[in-house]
Amino acid sequence: MANEVKPYKNNQTGKKQQVTKMFDNISGEYDGLNRVISLGLDQKWRDNVVDLVAQSKPDVIMDIATGTGDLVIKMAQKTNATKLIGLDISSGMLEIGKIKVSKEELDDRIEMVLGDSENLKYDDNSIDAITVSYGVRNFEDLEKGLSEILRVLKPGGILVVLETSVPTKFPFKQGYYLYSNLIVPTLGKLFSKDKTAYGYLSKSAAQFPHGEAFNNILKKVGFNEVDNYLQFYGASTIYKATKG
């Protein structure tokens, strides 16, 4: 993106380091506050991601930017995959995710891994399906991250991305801007330990190339059969793409 959005304006470190710090800071409150901010809809949208993944009957699944593990746990419960990898750059988020995985008695199928989405330590053509929910906009180099995903996917494997987008129709467009630019940052300042985190999340969502623009980036790095599905009038979008 032309104007890179970072969590901390006066910090000279790179976006990747700042994002890691931010998610470590908010890991303890993330699940609860996220449910409030999304009005609980994020869980339904993740269910829709799982449904798309399940259709391809994958044996090995990787969930990148897994956070506290909500999506990778859902996929373990609703698919027959024998191996699932939840990968994240934030150790704080992963520690909470590991507890949730253990509570669901899924340690034998889910491995929670500290890792960088732009430098995946996995072999070429080794993963059947990869998901990313609300994570691609935090990539420091978007095309590099997507190229790494393409590399490790098996031929015919699928990528399913859930990401925020901006509604285009009245009154949802106007309501979205009010909610994301005023209400979300205010909630973050009131209830988050990191007072800038939710302001960053709103700004990064607004500037992320969504819809056809993101479809074109997926095609540019080499994905085929690219499609997208609006969620709640475009407040979020699910993207599906295949490795040819």
Can you walk through the features of this model?
The protein is α/β, with parallel strands linked by helices. The chain has a domain at 39-166 and 208-243: 3-Layer(aba) Sandwich (Rossmann fold). It is built from 8 helices and 7 strands, in the order H-H-E-H-E-H-E-E-H-E-H-H-H-E-E. The chain has a 7-stranded mixed sheet, with helices on both faces. Helix 2 (41-55) packs across helix 3. The model has no long low-confidence stretch (mean pLDDT 92). InterPro entries: SAM-dependent_MTases_sf, UbiE/COQ5_MeTrFase, UbiE/COQ5_MeTrFase_CS. Pathway: Quinol/quinone metabolism; menaquinone biosynthesis; menaquinol from 1,4-dihydroxy-2-naphthoate: step 2/2. This is Demethylmenaquinone methyltransferase. Its EC number is 2.1.1.163.
Low-confidence stretches: none
- The count of helical stretches stands at 8
Mean pLDDT: 92
> Main β-sheet: number of strands, strand sense, barrel status?
7 strands, mixed
Compute the CA-based radius of gyration.
17 Å
SSE series? HHEHEHEEHEHHHEE
* Name of the CATH homologous superfamily of the domain at 39-166 and 208-243: Vaccinia Virus protein VP39
User: If strands are numbered along the chain, what order do they take across the biggest sheet?
Assistant: 3-2-1-4-5-7-6
Given the C-alpha coordinates, what overall shape results?
globular
Helices and strands: which structural class?
alpha/beta
At CATH level 2, the architecture of the domain at 39-166 and 208-243 is: 3-Layer(aba) Sandwich
Termini, distance in Å?
A: 26 Å
At CATH level 3, the topology of the domain at 39-166 and 208-243 is Rossmann fold
Strand content: 15-25%
Catalytic activity: a 2-demethylmenaquinol + S-adenosyl-L-methionine = a menaquinol + S-adenosyl-L-homocysteine + H(+)
Function: Methyltransferase required for the conversion of demethylmenaquinol (DMKH2) to menaquinol (MKH2).
GO molecular function: demethylmenaquinone methyltransferase activity
Pathway: Quinol/quinone metabolism; menaquinone biosynthesis; menaquinol from 1,4-dihydroxy-2-naphthoate: step 2/2
